[in-house]
Specification:
Distance between the termini: 102 Å
Strand content: 15-25%
Number of helices: 4
Shape: elongated
Order of helices and strands: HHHHEEEEEE
Oligomer: single chain
Largest sheet: 6 strands, antiparallel
Length: 217
C-alpha cells in the first residue's frame, strides 16, 4: 500500500510541475502579446471614398483618387480665399496651410507673396475660387504616378475684386501635384501635401482679367 501511495504522490507532483510549466509558458506568451500590443501603431489612417453605396475595399493609408481630388481642391481653395485684403489674407492662408504644403511649394508661394506685395497687387484685393460648373470629380481627373504621387486636374473659377470693383473672372485649369508626406499626423492627419503644379502648369480656359500673367495663380 505504501508503495502505491508513493506512486500516487509522485504522479501528483509531476502533474503539478507540468501545470506550473504550462502556467509559466502562458504567462510568457501573454507578456509577449502585451508588449506587441503596446508597441503596435496606435492610430490607423483610412481614406474612405465619398460614395459607399456599392461598398469599398479600404486599406490602411491608401488614398483613393476621390480623396486625392478632394484634398487638392480643399487645400488650394483655402490658399486662394482672401475675404478682406490679400495683403494680409494671402500670407495668413499660406501660414495656416503650411502643414499641407511641401517645402518646395511653400517656398514658391512665399516668393510669389513677396513679389506680389512689392508690385502692390494684393492691397485691398479679395479673392475666392470654386469649381467650374460641371467640372467636378471624374476618375480621369486624377493621374496616379505611383510611389506616393498623384496629379489632380482641377478646373476652377477665380473671382477677384479690388475696392468693390470686379477685376478678374477667369476659369483656369490647375494640374495640382499631390505627394505623400507623413511627417506629423497631429497637424496633418491626411499624410498628404500639395507639391505645386505639374507641366504644363496652370492655363486659362476662359478669361476676363486685368493682367494675363496674373491669371496663372
Amino acid at each position: 500500500m505504501a508503495f502505491g501511495y508513493r506512486g500516487e504522490n509522485e504522479n501528483l507532483r509531476a502533474h503539478i510541475r507540468s501545470l506550473r510549466l504550462t502556467l509559466a509558458g502562458s504567462l510568457i506568451v501573454m507578456l509577449a502579446l502585451w508588449h506587441g500590443w503596446e508597441s503596435a501603431r496606435r492610430d490607423a489612417r483610412f481614406h474612405l471614398p465619398p460614395d459607399l453605396r456599392s461598398g469599398a475595399v479600404v486599406k490602411i493609408d491608401d488614398p483613393h483618387p476621390e480623396n486625392i481630388y478632394a484634398f487638392a481642391g480643399y487645400i488650394f481653395q483655402q490658399l486662394n480665399y482672401w475675404p478682406d485684403d490679400g495683403e494680409k489674407d494671402y500670407g495668413a492662408a499660406v501660414y495656416r496651410m503650411a502643414a499641407y504644403l511641401s517645402p518646395r511649394f511653400l517656398d514658391e508661394l512665399n516668393t510669389d507673396l513677396a513679389e506680389r506685395g512689392k508690385r502692390g497687387e494684393l492691397s485691398e484685393r479679395r479673392r475666392a475660387i470654386h469649381d467650374v460648373p460641371g467640372a467636378g470629380y471624374q476618375e480621369s481627373r486624377v493621374k496616379v504616378h505611383g510611389n506616393g504621387a498623384w496629379t489632380a486636374q482641377m478646373d476652377l473659377h477665380i473671382d477677384e475684386h479690388v475696392r468693390g470693383m470686379g477685376v478678374k473672372s477667369v476659369d483656369i485649369r490647375y494640374p495640382l501635384r499631390v505627394i505623400r508626406r507623413d511627417v506629423n499626423p497631429e497637424i496633418n492627419p491626411w499624410g498628404l501635401v500639395l507639391d505645386g503644379f505639374d507641366p504644363p502648369g496652370p492655363h486659362r480656359l476662359s478669361e476676363f482679367s486685368d493682367s494675363p500673367a496674373e491669371a496663372r495663380r
